[in-house]
Amino acid sequence: MKWFFAFAYLLSLSPSALADLAQPQIGALSGAPTKEWTFLLYLNGNNNLDSFGKMNLNQMEVVGSNESVNLVTQWASIANGDVRRMLIQKDNDTATVTSPVVQNMGSVDMGSDKSLEDFIRWGITQYPAKHYFVAVWDHGSGWHARINDVLAGTAHPTDISWDDNTGHSITTKQLGAVMGRVSQWLGRKIDIYGSDACLMGMAEVAGEMKDSVAYFVGSQEVEPGAGWPYTDFLAPLAANPTMTAHDLSALLAKTYAASYDGGSNGTQGVTMASYDMAKYNAVRDAAQKLGTQIAKMPTAALAKVFAAANASQSFEYNDYVDFGDFLKHLSALDIREIDAKVIDQAKTALKDFVITSNNTGIYNASTGASIWIPKDKASLATYLATYETLVWDSETKWSRALSAFVN
User: Fold this and answer.
1) Coil, helix or strand for 93?
2) pTM of the model as a whole
3) Residue 402 CB contacts under 8 Å (≥ 6 apart), including other chains
4) What are the residue boundaries of the structural domains of the chain, listed by start?
5) Mean pLDDT taken over the chain
6) N or C: more exposed end of the chain, with fewer CB within 10 A?
7) 3-class SS at 314?
8) What percent of the chain has a predicted confidence (pLDDT) above 90?
9) Is the dihedral angle over the CA atoms 263, 229, 253, 391 positive or is it negative?
10) What CATH number does the domain located at 35-279 have?
11) Are 212 and 180 spatial neighbours (Cβ–Cβ below 8 Å)?
12) Which residue, among 135, 132, 140, 148, has the nearest Cα to 188 in the 3D structure?
């Protein structure tokens, strides 16, 4: 009879009361205190980056969780042969990961969006905090992988968290959908999302989580294997746990670049930026206006736009182009068919969106956020159908401009 009374009780509840029941019971099962920050690292070492994962966890253990900050990970390792959930604790052993395993998951597909979502929900429930920073660690390729690499078997078809055991990865749209569902479940935006992965610092990637994430951190270029300098940015957080999400996102971008500019990771050309997602819509609107003008241009003017794109800063994937540098080259060409005010509006919106862009080596022209500009019609045709499904393109119609000027 218990089921009957339970069912009758549910029927008696108002819609708002039912909605309350759907909210996460954060900390209710664990009895854990609410801290200032919980950092949730989804570390997928089921691939050739495995050794770097162990290194990064040892960097986290230099800091460790404390009374104000939870450092939590779901760690997949080919060497270990399993997936472990751990609360990172401080130790003095920089060669061995000693933090306690809270839950051994056995075999898990780390290339699954469901696995990522399960981890985030579990971490938030078990380790409640005022602020949440979600990071995905692994290979990344922006919103697409190079088709030749896919055909050659040297890259996965899409986007981030490649699991060599299963052959699966998480697409940009799936990544955004996970953040959206978690945000809705949590009842507010995730404070920071970051990709410790290559090539994810793109307007197209940010667009998928524009309504679910407050701040975004990503690299326009390939990241070295060592990735983020975890000690360098987590130690200041542990010392100042009331740090805002704005400041923490900027701190990560700055310490990352500094670590490769003669710092803890040596010397190497890198990029890293943090974005204020509340300013995303202004960038989107400016891109929409610019794209609309470009799509209506005569052939001669379109050739100048294409020349500006080809002269702009690009990255390992040469169809990922720095948006700010592209705008700079458009301005320099003084194309009369483009209203100069539209370009200026785009420059202003991008400057407001990018909190900090930190670059070393050959990336002085980088301004923080990439957009897709393929170098030829064949590449455009290869990716166009998928591109048109992205939030960025559905709202800006940037693909119409691309179809006009890419040749």
Assistant:
1) coil
2) 0.92
3) 372, 373, 374, 380, 384
4) 35-279, 281-405
5) 92
6) N
7) strand
8) 87
9) positive
10) 3.40.50.11970
11) yes
12) 132
